[in-house]
Design a protein that fits this description.
The complex is a heterodimer of chains A (about 300) and B (about 140). Chain A has about 300 residues and is α/β, with parallel strands linked by helices. Chain A has 2 domains: about 5-130 and about 290-300, Rossmann fold, CATH 3.40.50.1370; about 130-285, Rossmann fold, CATH 3.40.50. Helices cover about 35% and strands about 15% of the residues of chain A. Chain A has 11 helices and 10 strands. In chain A, helix 3 (about 85-90) crosses helix 4 and helix 5 (about 130-145) packs across helix 6 (about 160-170). The longest helix of chain A has 19 residues, at about 280-300. Chain A is globular and about 55 Å long. Chain A starts with a strand and ends in a 5-residue tail after the last helix. Chain B has about 140 residues and is mainly β. Chain B has 2 domains: about 10-90, Aspartate carbamoyltransferase regulatory subunit, N-terminal domain (Alpha-Beta Plaits, 2-Layer Sandwich); about 95-130, no CATH class. Chain B contains 2 helices and 8 strands, in the order βαββαβββββ. Chain B has helices spanning about 20-25, 65-70; strands at about 10-15, 35-45, 50-55, 75-80, 80-90, 95, 115-120, 125-130. Chain B has a 5-stranded antiparallel beta sheet, with helices on one face. In chain B, strands 6-7-8 form a 3-stranded antiparallel beta sheet, covered by helices on one side. Chain B starts with 8 loop residues before the first strand and ends in an 8-residue tail after the last strand. Classes of the chains: A alpha/beta (about 300), B mainly beta (about 140). The interface of A and B includes residues 83, 85, 107, 110 and 195 of A.
Chain lengths: ~300, ~140
């Protein structure tokens, strides 16, 4: 595997292999502590991100490898006008694998086409974020024991939420998946995702603006933040940001085994009072993200343990 | 109206009326030294009206441009004054440097030397998406 740009580049077999590897890492962390000794990961983050960069770096350190990191994008060669292609070719001389976050959509693909080492897309604008999807898949798999026959609700910003689009793309390939799409009209799932993914795979779905009405049906509730940075107009952001707030009151409507996921960071869409609810899985998701990034790095560097 | 017949060259036929000049421009036929004729609004029993382009030289045509702009066209290859080959054009699976991505967030908007790549994602609805950002071509 020489690149991961979009979650759909992974076959179901490859995802299964990563999930099993992740389970093994959780069960036997010591066995992986030196797996990437002598290897270097370059984290090229051209837009601010704390958790994803730290997650990649923690993953590489836990595999015994090293990390090369830019101080900040403002002082990088990109700020001097270097192209993504040139950056990728240059960093390939220093590192064994690259994780790239970039505000421009498609930049990691350009890097992958020019690098001589594997490239992982760590988020490109509002487009793809496949390692978040891998974290989501591992969380669902560990909580439910399966990735099929599930009713999955997505709530909040389904228009700009790249994690939502990626997870829908990933889950659409499993049998018995039903989607419940909960959003304000202005932030509903783009029609091309519905047509090209949900309808193309003949999947059952419901679209609604009412979270409470559908909450009792859900195996998984995937909450999202309304992202200020995706709006060109501040007024639209302010009007829509508080559309859905998950509270302990609302959680009473959910099933006892409903798992609540969120890609984080949250603003106020999940009340902190829910953090102690055993159904809250968003901090487990953070941990699982690191584990899946470890599994992915091992797979891409073809390291046998 | 009479246009001389071609000895060795290409006739692009069944162009939707009005698209002849677009195809002429996109194929950069103005850069050719040979005779090129654009015939507009020709009577057609099948199409009502159509455009035709005749090129009096055996050049390499960018079939992707033709397929994208007007997938119903036919291309006749003329050799020794006779029809040697007749090609139907289909929607191309991939377009390179035919259209530009208009998504302001796409990497191609800041790195303009990158090739503009699009892939066909829905043949029925003729939907092309940018290979970099997945934005639909407009």
């Amino acid at each position: 595997m020489k690149r991961l740009i979009d979650i759909t580049e992974l076959s179901l077999q490859e995802i299964e292999r990563l999930l099993h590897r992740a389970e093994d890492i959780i069960a036997r962390p010591a066995a992986y502590a030196h797996a990437c000794e002598g290897k270097k990961l370059a984290t090229l983050f051209f837009e601010p991100s704390t958790r994803t960069r730290l997650s990649f770096e923690a993953a590489m350190y836990e595999l015994g490898g090293h990390v090369l990191s830019m101080a900040d994008a403002g002082s990088s060669s990109a700020a001097k006008g270097e192209s993504v292609a040139d950056t990728a070719k240059t960093v390939s001389c220093y590192a064994d694998i690259i994780a790239m976050r970039h505000p421009k959509e498609g930049a990691p693909l350009v890097a992958a086409l020019n690098a001589t080492v594997p490239v992982i897309n760590a988020g490109d604008g509002g487009h793809n974020h496949p390692t978040q999807t891998l974290a989501d898949l591992l969380t669902i798999y560990l909580e439910k024991g399966r990735l099929s026959n599930l009713t999955v609700g997505f709530c909040g910003d389904l228009k700009f939420g790249r994690t939502v689009h990626s997870l829908i793309n990933a889950l659409a390939r499993y049998v018995g998946i039903r989607f419940v799409l909960i959003s304000p009209t202005e932030l509903k799932l783009p029609s091309y995702v519905k047509k090209d993914v949900i309808q193309k795979n003949n999947l059952d779905y419901t679209q609604t603006t009412e979270l409470e009405a559908v909450l009792p049906e859900l195996d998984i509730l995937y909450m999202t933040r309304v992202q200020r940075e995706r709006f060109f107009n501040e007024e639209d952001y302010l009007r829509l940001k508080d559309s859905y707030i998950l509270t302990p009151e609302k959680m009473k409507l959910a099933r006892p085994d409903c798992s609540v996921l969120h890609p984080l960071p949250r603003v106020n869409e999940i009340s902190v009072a829910i953090d102690d609810d055993p159904r809250a899985c968003y901090f487990k998701q953070v941990f699982n993200g690191k584990i899946m990034r470890m599994a992915l790095i091992l797979e891409m560097l073809e390291v046998q343990v | 109206m009479n246009i001389d017949s071609i000895q060795n060259g290409i006739v692009i036929d069944h162009i939707t009326a009005g698209r002849g000049m677009t195809i002429y421009r996109l194929l950069q036929l103005d850069s050719l030294d040979c005779s090129v004729a654009i015939i507009k609004n020709v009577h057609s029993s099948k199409m009502g009206k159509k455009d035709i382009i005749k090129i009096d030289a055996a050049i390499d045509l960018n079939m992707d441009i033709l397929g994208y702009v007007d997938p119903g066209v036919t291309v006749d290859i003329i050799r020794g004054g006779k029809l040697a080959e007749k090609r139907s054009i289909d929607l191309p699976e991939r377009l390179e440097n035919v259209i530009r991505c208009k998504n302001p967030r796409c990497i191609t908007t800041t790195e303009q030397e990158l090739p503009q790549l699009f892939r066909l994602t829905d043949r029925e609805r003729r939907v092309y998406r940018c290979a970099y950002c997945d934005a639909q071509a407009k």
